[in-house]
Structures are given as C-alpha cells and as structure tokens.
Amino acid sequence: xxxxxxxxxxxxxxxxxxxxxxxxxxxxxxxxxxxxxxxxxxxxxxxxxxxxxxxxxxxxxxxxxxxxxxxxxxxxxxxxxxxxxxxxxxxxxxxxxxxxxxxxxxxxxxxxxxxxxxxxxxxxxxxxxxxxxxxxxxxxxxxxxxxxxxxxxxxxxxxxxxxxxxxxxxxxxxxxxxxxxxxxxxxxxxxxxxxxxxxxxxxxxxxxxxxxxxxxxxxxxxxxxxxxxxxxxxxxxxxxxxxxxxx
Length: 247
Known about the structure:
Elements: H1 7-16, H2 18-38, E1 44-52, H3 64-81, H4 84-94, H5 100-106, E2 107-111, E3 117-124, H6 127-149, E4 154-158, H7 173-198, H8 205-212, H9 228-240
Helix pairs in contact: 2-7, 4-5, 4-6
Pfam families: Wzz (PF02706)
Membrane topology: Multi-pass membrane protein
Protein name: Capsular biosynthesis protein
C-alpha cells in the first residue's frame, strides 16, 4: 500500500513538536549571541586609498593612452603591495611581531572597476594598529615602487584614521544570530519529522490499516468507567425490580 502524507499531517507534526522546535531554535540563537559577544575577539577595520596618477611626462596635453596604461598597471600594483618586498619593510618600520604571511592575511587590496584608485584595507583587533599598518603600507609602497618599476605615478589619496566610538566589523552579532536562527529552525524541524517517522506506535485507525495492510471493519469506542457509585446504583435498581434486570 502506497503511503501518503497530507499537509494536515505535516502541520499536526509541527504542532505536536512545537516545544522541541522552539527550544532548539531559541537555544541556537542564544548560544550564537553569547559566543559573539563574549568569546569572539572584536576586529576593527581601517582603510587608505592610493591614486595611480597619470605618469609624469613632458607632454602638456592630456594623453588618454597614459591613463589606460596606469589602469592596466593597477593589477600589478595590487600584487606588489602584498609582496614580501613591501610587507617586510612594513614589519620593520612598525616593529610588528608578525610574519609576512600573518601580515598579509590582515591586508586586503582592491580597486574599483575602471578606476585609478586602489584601496588598502587592514583588519586588526586594535583599531590604531590597523590604521598604522594601512598608512605605513601605503607609504612604503609609494616609496618602493619607484625602485621596483622605475615609475613615480602613485600618490596617497586618503590616509587611514581612527574615528571616535569606532565599532568593530567582526563579529556581526545580528548576522550570526540570524544564521543561528535559520540553522536552528531547520535542524529542529528536520528532527521533529525524524522523530515522527521513527515513532512506530499505533495512534489511530489509519495506522492500523497501514500496519496490517488490511481494510478497517470497525472501531471499538472507549467506554468510560463511572466508578463504584454507578455499580452500586445499578445493583440497587436490580433489587427494587425483584431481581430482574432492566435492559
């Protein structure tokens, strides 16, 4: 016999296991919030911007080809900024107790499409350290690019600074709570249906038919026992009728 599940049965399962679903979901959200607030280290972010200028030239007329050349060089600059040749000098200048790879993991270099602006973004538990690393990286790159590529077309557009009441970018407590809510409710609903599937007890007439694979002929209703008082009254009635029971 093919077994089908109706929407009504699904809703009944959810209603039956509602306490389990709410408990798991609320616990997941609570644990995520507590973990984000008290156990994860806050990470601050600071950025500086570099401008890839038109290469210095004796030509007084605006030359679009030079701008296009600078745009093509930006990808090369992005790689050079995170190279050991630059990061080792940054570590030495700031006296950082970090390897080049560890420093590299803190720095993100990106450029806007069709733009001559390069953004150097640094993330660190200390907002002032993040700003120092960003500014020093930009300064070192600006100085060293002259020797590395024999060009002098990079200038600092905006320096990194620490604002008052700066907020960390990580962890995002609200986002983590939302993710925990989605995961919690998904897991709890799946667990509810799994428990219902594993529950092989017979609860209604349909379960009898599915278990025996036979049609149902009849149902015996539940007869409530009214207790000793009812039996005593029935005995007294028989006595009053001379011992004849009345049906």
